TrEMBL record:
Entry-linked Gene3D superfamilies: sav2460 like domains
InterPro entries in alphabetical order: Stress/Tellurium_Resist, Tellurite_resistance_TerA, TerD
Family: Belongs to the CAPAB/TerDEXZ family.
Organism: Streptomyces glaucus
Protein's name in the database: TerD family protein
Ranges for domain TerD: 4-158
Ranges of compositional bias, category Pro residues: 172-202
Region (Disordered): 165-203
TM ranges: none
Amino acid sequence: MPATALRVELGWRTGPGVPDADASALLLTGGRVRSDGDFVFCDQPVHPSGAVRHEGKRTADGRVTDSLLVDLARVEPAVGTVILAASADGGAFGQVPELYIEVRDAARGTVAARFDNPGATVETAFVLGEFYRRQGAWRFRAVGQGYDSGLEGLATDYGITVDGPRHAAPAAGPPSPAAAPPPRATPPAPPATPPAAPPPQPVRLTKVTLTKAAPSVSLTGQGGTAGALRVNLDWQARRQFPGWAAKLGRSAAPHSDLDLDLCALYELTDGSKGVVQALGNAFGALHHPPYIHLDGDDRTGAVATGENLTVNLDHRQAFRRILVFVTLYEGARSFAGLHATVTLRPQYGAPIEFSLDECTVPSTVCALALITSTGTDLVVRREARYLVPERGVSPQRTVDRAYGWGMTWTPGRK
């Protein structure tokens, strides 16, 4: 392998009954991770060294790809192996057709290695390949070894501490050999001794994927009604879709000119309404009304950053409803050809993720998710609704009308 930045693409053909899959990487020293930070996946997308990043998914022509960016030149000397793995969500790999892994030079796009998995049955996690050091150089090996215990089984096999999904209490019987031992009681420290630092939190592998068939989830039921709720919008750069750029009568330009804005309409229980957005520098506030804050204005869609909005759920009783939406500020005429993923990460509870459908209308504003309060419950609903503004009507006013917010709008700029 060239000691440079490589894009590792996990791909398969989608269709009815085909489960979703997620790419992940583990950085090993002596066959084990040094800490949970050596595990890179969708909910821990960047290695502390910056050498490995989870880039995310895109769908085109009936195929789905999930990518990792591995910069071999930045991998720490102590790391001898980078495991390239996949896990199935909602089924087994026997239901995933045409599964492959492909390694490309990230700058040139040339293929350095490819492995088409010959077949699978009940496996729910796979090690498809690995980078390993030999005689001072990096090499790639195809593996194709499966696990029927999912990502949790794969991760624990390499030394990851896992906080698995919550299940109903099992019937009485002998404990499972794989079950974690109960925590040992710690004797109280002497008064003069400061308390020990809390142990590192285990990696949470569970996630909730919202679909058209199952569009809603209760944050209360997930245990996610306190702390910070972080909403992330990540999109594929236009330079990866030259055909789309050609439709606009221009070459496939660098993605810095594509500017999407993550926004939120809010309505509080005291009757106040407003918007949080970069336009007009209305970035909101986290510790006083509206308890919603836009982190900044990312004009790149960069990996692991994108646009981020934070909701302070410690003040959840102040919320009546929050509509998260995105506008296309500049760089394209519509969302057509754009592949975006929305992730809501509660500080407590499982992350919630969904992808936007393919846009087939000349839309410049898309309603993403609606968070509503019933007084005792907070519910997140996937909207993924493309709206087409009438001539002379702003995207903000368009989404306001569609959801009955009833606000007065004036022109603004960034």
